[in-house]
Design goal:
Layout (H helix, E strand, L loop, with lengths): L5 H5 L2 H6 L7 H22 L3 E5 L4 H6 L13 E6 L4 H13 L6 E5 L4 E5 L9 E5 L1
């Protein structure tokens, strides 16, 4: 974990506001470390500048509170929603295309709502699906 921290991947303004304990278990921490080591750090290294994690781990209660999918990989520490520091459609699209081109073992790479953010996931528990999706 070179560029990201567990704190950064578990921070949630919704959890703070609603007093939800979003502390990860050891298994979730291990999943977050793998996500960073296999996906996020290599992307950050290649991108050459900071990447913002807007949503990482979400405990089941927090996942419900934010309207997350029932089977979300966020609840296992295997996914992160990210965006560029500039947070523009153009820059987020460049980041998405970079991730797509790097040959990383991601499970899912999702363009969310015209590059408002990028969802990326990794799981060591199964072969990566390498799904590339767009949600409108």
């Amino acid at each position: 974990m070179k560029f990201f921290t567990i704190n950064e991947l578990t921070r949630s303004s919704t959890a703070l506001r609603k007093k939800i304990n979003n502390s990860p278990t050891e298994e979730v921490k291990n999943n977050l470390i793998e996500l960073v080591d296999k996906i996020l750090d290599p992307v950050r290294e290649k991108w050459g500048k900071p990447i913002i994690v807007s949503s990482g781990y979400r405990c089941p209660t927090l996942n419900v509170a934010v309207g997350g999918a029932k089977n979300s990989q966020h609840t296992t520490g295997e996914a992160a929603d990210i965006h560029t520091v500039e947070d523009t459609v153009a820059e987020n699209k460049k980041l998405f295309e970079l991730i797509k081109s790097m040959g990383l073992p991601f499970d899912q790479l999702i363009n969310e709502y015209n590059y408002n953010w990028i969802h990326v996931s990794y799981s060591s528990k199964h072969k990566p699906r390498k799904q590339i999706l767009s949600i409108k």
